[in-house]
Design a protein that fits this description.
280 residues; mainly alpha; MetI-like fold; two-stranded antiparallel ribbon; 2 strands; 76% helix; globular
């Protein structure tokens, strides 16, 4: 009787958990699936009732966007350059700084570490005006260089803090053994610490890339006509005449596709990286 009751309770709990997981997945994925399907429909087909989930795909919207008239390829190129450049700079400097904070011993190290991450905690609108004034003096407003630096101001503190945590998980004995064999401190960093912390490096890179790729506020303020990114282009589809639903859905599909592919490609490293330091 007792065993039967326990099995019944366990079955009930599992049923409730699976139901919640399924409902959560539907809640999260349905808007994305709807957007992708709508991007492959005609304007009239998007608003057909009842909605059709099986239909002949229409790629006219994508053809127009990537044509010379649509000019979408320029926005896509700008997004790739800004996101990849900012992520690369943040990973390089963040790895160096994070390693220094993880291995060096000096006064106020914890205070400095907290101050670095606290700059990332500040809301974006709070730093817009100071950055804009500084960038104006340096003639960086409206340029691709200015946009990359703007992204880096938020990505770098995050990358530095994350890499500091990951490098703390790397046994210092490995680097000491390498230095006994003749490696310098920098060689031990490059040949031992960085490869060992690769999952953390990948996880940090993906998160920095996602911020830069999806950002609208920085791009809307610091980019110019020749450096506008995809999120800015998406905002232009909302006009006084109405919303270009076909292009809006296609633009959203283009925005999420690279991040989904990148996440799936490095999911093993992403899980390992985000779980580093979680278990002592």
């Amino acid at each position: 009787m007792g065993a039967t009751t326990i099995r019944t309770k366990k079955t009930l709990v599992n049923t409730v958990l699976y139901t919640l997981v399924i409902l959560s997945l539907i809640w999260a994925l349905l808007p994305i699936v709807w957007m992708v399907l709508s991007s492959l429909k005609t304007q009239a087909g998007m608003f057909t009732m009842p909605p059709k989930f099986f239909f002949e795909p229409n790629f006219d919207t994508f053809k127009y966007m990537f044509s010379a008239e649509g000019n979408f390829l320029k926005f896509l190129t700008n997004s790739v350059i800004a996101a990849v450049s900012s992520t690369g700079i943040s990973l390089i400097l963040g790895s160096l700084g994070g390693y220094a904070l993880a291995r060096a011993n000096f006064k106020r190290k914890k205070d400095i570490s907290f101050w670095i991450i606290s700059t990332r905690m500040a809301p974006i609108p709070a730093v817009m005006l100071p950055l804009y004034l500084m960038f104006s003096e340096l003639n960086l407003v409206g340029s691709m260089t200015g946009l990359i630096f703007a992204y880096t101001t938020f990505n770098l503190p995050f990358a530095l803090w994350m890499m500091m945590v990951f490098f703390k998980e790397v046994p210092a004995a490995l680097e000491e053994a390498a230095m006994i064999d003749g490696c310098s401190r920098f060689q031990a960093f490059v040949k031992i610490a960085v490869p060992t912390a690769t999952p953390g490096l990948v996880a940090t890179g993906i998160l920095c890339l996602m911020f830069s790729w999806n950002d609208f506020l920085f791009a809307s303020v610091f980019s110019g006509h020749s450096s506008q990114t995809i999120p800015v282009a998406a905002s232009m589809l909302i006009t006084q005449q109405g919303i270009a639903w076909g292009q809006a859905m296609a633009t959203g599909t283009v925005i999420i596709t690279p991040m989904v592919i990148a996440g799936l490609a490095v999911r093993k490293y992403l899980v390992q990286g985000l779980s580093m330091g979680a278990v002592k």
